[in-house]
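Friendly challenge for the regulars: who can give me the C-alpha cells for this chain first? No prize, just bragging rights.
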Amino acid sequence: MRAVRSWSPMRKVTVAIVAFYTASFLWALLISDRAPKLELIRKWRGHDTGFSSLAFPPVFVAFFPDGHLLASWSIESTLKLWRVSDGKLLQALKHEGGICSVAFSPNGRLLALGGAGSIKLWRMKDGKLLQTRKHDGYRFKCFPSDRLLAFSSDGHLLASGCADGIVRLWRVDDGQLLQMLKHKDRVNSVAFSSDGHLLASGSFDSTVKLWRVDDGKLLRTLKHGDAVLSIAFSPDGRLLSSGGMDCTIKLWRVSDGELLQTLKHDSWVRSVAFSPDGHYLASAGGIIKLWRVSDGKAVWEWKAGTTSLHWLVTRLGTFLRHFGISLPPLLRPCWLIPHCVAFSSDGQLLAAGISSGSDGMIYLWRVRK
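First reply, four minutes later:
Bragging rights claimed.
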C-alpha cells in the first residue's frame, strides 16, 4: 500500500516565505540596476554677477536641511534664500566684501557665512546676526566654494577652510577656536563624517587629509594627484569622494584609505555630492554627471554646447553690464557652466549653480528612481 504525503499548512507557509524573499531579492536587484530619471522642473536667474575678471563667475547652492529652502551665492556680497516649491526669493543677506562659503546647521537653526575676514552666524527663524568671528584666513576676498564651511552632525562644531592652508575648528556655542590643522596650500573643501568623529579636508596641495576630531590628530593623507576642489563623505561614512583639477573623481574607503574607483570627468571637478541613500554621486564642472556608486557607471549627464562666438558674446555682455547696458535677447550667450551640485535631504531634488556670463543661474531637477 503506497503512503500518501499530505500537503501540510506549515509547508505552504514555508514555500510562501521562500517565494516572497526570492521575489524581493530579484526586485531589489532590478531596482538597484535601474538608472534614475531626472526631470528639469525649474530654472531661474538668481544672481547678477556683473563685471568681473572671471568670464563665468561661479554660482553655488545649498539646501536647507528640511529641503524647503535653497541658498545661493556667488562673487557678489549677497546670500539669497529661495523657496523650493516655487522659486520665490524669501530673503537676501549681505556680507560686505564677498562670500566664500555657506553652511546650515543640521537642525536648521543656524546659518554660517564666511568671507572678508570673518565668519558670521545667523539665526534662521528671524535672520538675527548672533556672532561675528574674526577669521584671518578670510582677510582677503577669497575664491568662493560650496564646501569651505561645514557643521558637525551634532551641530556643536564648525570647520572652515581657506586660502592660508589652515583648517580651523570652532566651537559653535561660544565661537572659541579649538584647533588649527595645516595643509601645504590653500584648502578648498572640508567635510565631517556622519558620526562626527572624522574631519576631511581637500587642498591645492593635491591631498585629502583625514583628521580625528577629538584631538586633531592626522590619521591619513590621501594623494589625489592634482589640486582637490571638492570632497564629500558618503551618508554612512564608509566612503569619501574627492574631485579635482585632474578631471577625475576618486572614491576612497575611509577605514584604510584604499582607492576603490577613479571616475573620469570631462573637466575640472568643482563639486561632488552623494545622494542621501548613498547609491549615487553627483559631480559638477563643465558638465553635470550622476554616477552609480556600486560600479562607477555614469547613468545621467547634463551639458550645454560651447563655441568661441558664445565666449566672445559673453565677455562683451559682461563688459556692457558694467555700464548698465544689456545685450538684446538674441545676442545673449548660452554657454552654461555648472559649478556646484546639491541633493535635497530626501534625495528627490538635485540643484545646481550654473553661470552664464554675468548671469548666475539656478537649475532644479526632480530625481525619479
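The first strand starts at residue 37 and ends at 48. The two ends are 59 Å apart (CA to CA). Your move, everyone else.
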